[in-house]
Amino acid sequence: MTNLPAPDESWALFLDVDGTLIDTAGHPDSVQPSHRLGEILGRTADALDGALALISGRPIAEIDRLTERVAPAASGLHGLELRTPAAGYEGPQVDVEDLRAARDRLQRLAAGHPALYFEDKQATLALHYHKADNTTRGEAERAVREIVAEADGALSLLAGKAVYEIKPARGDKGRALQRLMSDPPFAGRCPVYVGDDVTDEAAFVAVNSLGGVSVRVGGPGSSAARYRLDSVDEVLEWLEQIATTLKTPSPRPT
To answer: 20 burial class (0-12, 13-18, 19+ CB within 10 angstroms)?
Structure first.
């Protein structure tokens, strides 16, 4: 395990889901969380007095399903959806006209290519190419880039691991993290963000600007993150270490 800073009671912990807490799969519905994930997250949240949030490209309902709804704070759809203990639930404000043409085009593209899978999250649109050959992937990339270019700044593209995702331009994980940091129990704490993909880079940048701890999960590649963990298993081991360390009383001086 990479030499990370020692756990601190002042941390506010923000965690990506796919590729960070759960190993990725060829299809988003095929992921298999550890049977202990809910327990680990619950113990870690308790150790930080509730200052733990999950931030994902999935909708919050999916985050809750995969993690046993342990975290009262969460952000879904790359920052477009938010739930905080202080303010409650804030749904995505989306102009459906911006996405209608994109949805129709991506549906037609996926229907003509069995190796592509179109995922309609309503507020964002994802085109998965895990099983596609280079030619099909190239066609998918050209299509999503044309869609975003034709939207005149209303939409943006996230190129993740074997997926292209189109979303309203105003949302990202960094903005979600900063919004969460303005409310209790996160306000005044040191932010720590853990993620594994290019979609997490905005959150790494936001954490670094706040003097926090940014952690990238996985292999080589440029990143704004200042620390590394190698795998989902290492992340879960580290979370257990945080829970154990912070709930163990310090020895009294003799």
So the answer is: buried
Q: Are strands 227-229 and 213-217 parallel, antiparallel or unpaired?
A: parallel
Tell me which of 8, 16, 172, 196 is the catalytic residue: 16
- What is the predicted pLDDT for the residue at 63? 95
Q: Quick one: pLDDT at residue 252? A: 44
Provide the β-strand partners of residue 90.
Answer: 82
DSSP string, 91-150: -----HHHHHHHHHHHHHHHHT-TT-EEEE-SSSEEEE-TT--HHHHHHHHHHHHHHHHH
- CA atoms of 66 and 81, how far apart (whole Å): 17
Strand partners of residue 12: 191
DSSP for residue 45: H
Catalytic-residue membership of 98: no
Q: Name the 3-class secondary structure at 222.
A: coil
Residues in the chain: 254
- Sheet with 11-15: list strands edge to edge: 88-90, 81-84, 73-76, 52-55, 11-15, 190-195, 213-217, 227-229
pLDDT under 70: residue ranges of the chain: 1-2, 94-96, 248-254
pTM metric for this prediction: 0.84
**Could you give the CA distance from residue 106 to residue 188 in angstroms, rounded to a whole number?**
43
Q: What token pair was written down for 150?
A: 């034709």
